Amino acid sequence: MTQTLTVTEEGKDCRLDAFLSGQLEGLSRSYIQKVLKGGGVTVNGKTEKSSYRLVPGDQVAIDVPEPEELQIAAEPMDLDILYEDSDIILINKPKGMVVHPAAGHYSGTLVNGLMAHCRDDLSGINGVLRPGIVHRIDMDTTGVLIACKNDTAHRSIAEQLKVHSITRKYYAIVHGVIKEEEGTVDAPIGRHPTDRKKMCINQKNGKEAVTHYRVLKRFERYTYVECQLETGRTHQIRVHMASIHHPLLGDAVYGPAKCPVPGLQGQTLHAGVLGIIHPRTGAYMEFSAPLPEYFAELLRKLK
User: Fold this and answer.
1) Which domains, and CATH codes, for the chain?
2) Pairwise CA distance, residues 180 & 95, whole Å
3) Among 46, 49, 253, 301, which residue's beta carbon has the most beta carbons within 10 A?
């Protein structure tokens, strides 16, 4: 199928191959360059080289391969189940676990484990790769995540996410000492114009994103904070805290490339609290997950 993209001001003077890598999630830059060499990309109806520099208003068309239908295997695993009934299941996701299958991760994901545990009782709204999944958290983020066992529950939770009525509190350690006791970052987030793996503050094309934070503990070079989400954009807390010059400790994507804590893998971010209206009973329910041991140990060392 052919996908057409319009270049905005943010893509001005960007190389054609870099622009496509930033816009097309799931396609590697090397694959895009092969398509370019084969004449599968046009700019304003003409084939161009990878090095072509874009200008706002350019119409970029690329022939994208049809997605293959994959068979995802059920894999029995020891899930940390916080709550379960006939409609929903809440898991305390460990660090390093991917939520659903994607390029490079087709086994060992939370979905593989849920398929073994719930068998056929998972909602199908998000397709064969993401059964039951309404929202997700990053691979190196730990904590509470909800999955739905039927489409009715899925629609209810999805609507609560849409109107921002779900309670979501995260705990993080950030670089630097935050002076104020609390604050709010209200800045739209969108895909980075040249790096497809990153998000960024995007005033023109981003979606509304609001994060409230408050200081829990200050250390010599770091601050332990609670972040409450109004919205749920990809990498929201990571992008927002980095935007105010307090990136998450261990976050090599939005913070320092070299982690100052030996052995720490990925950002120190924990989804500690999730509150929802139950899709069947209408009752408000709140679930919490304790800090993982690595996180608690790090706080003890910082003290």
Assistant:
1) 2-63 (3.10.290.10), 81-163 (3.30.2350.10), 169-267 (3.30.2350.10)
2) 30
3) 253
Catalytic residue ranges:
138
> In degrees, to the nearest 5, what angle opens at C-alpha 236 toward C-alphas 233 and 238?
155
The size of the chain, in residues, is 303
Is the sign of the CA dihedral 37, 31, 133, 224 positive or negative? negative
Give CA–CA dist 186/227, Å, rounded.
13
The tokens describing 259, both together, are 């982690």
For 103, 129, 207, the CA distances from 68, given in Å and listed in that order, are 12, 11, 29
For the stretch 159-166, contacts whose Cβ atoms lie closer than 8 Å and that sit 24 or more positions apart, written own/partner, are 160/276, 160/277, 161/134, 161/135, 161/232, 164/230, 164/231, 165/277, 166/274, 166/275, 166/276
Burial class (CB in 10 A: 0-12, 13-18, 19+), 144: buried
**pLDDT tens-place string over residues 47-61:** 988 889 999 999 999
Distance CA 279, CA 148 (A): 10
Contact residues for 106 (Cβ-Cβ < 8 A; gap 6+): 70, 72
121: which DSSP letter?
A: -
CA distances from 135 to 12, 69, 220, 221, 267 (A): 33, 22, 35, 33, 19
* Pair of tokens at residue 271: 């989804």
- Residue among 206, 263, 264 nearest 235 (CA): 206
Dump pLDDT digits (tens) for 151-163.
999 999 999 999 9
